[in-house]
Amino acid sequence: MKKNLVLVITLCMAVIVCMGVFAYLLKENTSKRGSAEPRLFGATYMTRNNPFFEELHEGIKEVVEENGDILIARDPQQNQERQNQQILDMLDEGIEVLFLNPVDWESVFPALEACKAANVPVINVDTVVKDTEYVVSIIETDNYQAGVECAKDLINRLPNRRDSHH
């Protein structure tokens, strides 16, 4: 199956942004910690039963592991209560940064509060949370522009395309 160009571009941009955020966070954490131990990152996506989130996860994981750190991920399977509990569990496991794609942009608030209380920065991915003051970075897809690009690509691929209307 061919990958959609828009998806690939979106993923590349997300990984580039993540790398910049990582560099900042790692610099900050290294200067504060003074330890060479691997850092623990957490990630939770509304579902892992979607190729977009699987590709996004693999990109984040690659960058984390290249820095000698560890990424743990949870799949709430479209259940916000489960996602909130999984975030609390990851905080108990000692994550230092959380990548978050919320199931519900409003009902994730208790987990955001818990991250703030634990001094764990949240990087909000794809679906923006309502309370953006609780996140350090937002990486989101411009779905309208993605639709425009997909439509242009589809038109260009149509057989026997004619410009008879112009």
Task: Write structural notes for this entry.
The protein is of the alpha/beta class and 166 residues long. The chain has one domain (5-153): Response regulator (Rossmann fold), CATH 3.40.50. The chain has helices at 5-33, 51-66, 80-93, 109-117, 143-157; strands spanning 40-44, 70-74, 97-100, 122-125, 137-139. Strands 2-1-3-4-5 form a 5-stranded parallel beta sheet, sandwiched between helices. α1 runs parallel beside α2 and α3 (80-93) packs parallel to α4.
Tell me how many strands there are. 5
CATH architectural category:
3-Layer(aba) Sandwich
Largest sheet: 5 strands, parallel
CATH fold annotation: Rossmann fold
Characterize this entry briefly:
This protein is of the alpha/beta class and 166 residues long. 50% of the residues lie in helices and 13% in strands. It has helices at 5-33, 51-66, 80-93, 109-117, 143-157; strands spanning 40-44, 70-74, 97-100, 122-125, 137-139.
Task: Describe the structure using short key phrases.
166 residues, alpha/beta, Rossmann fold, five-stranded parallel sheet, 5 helices, 5 strands
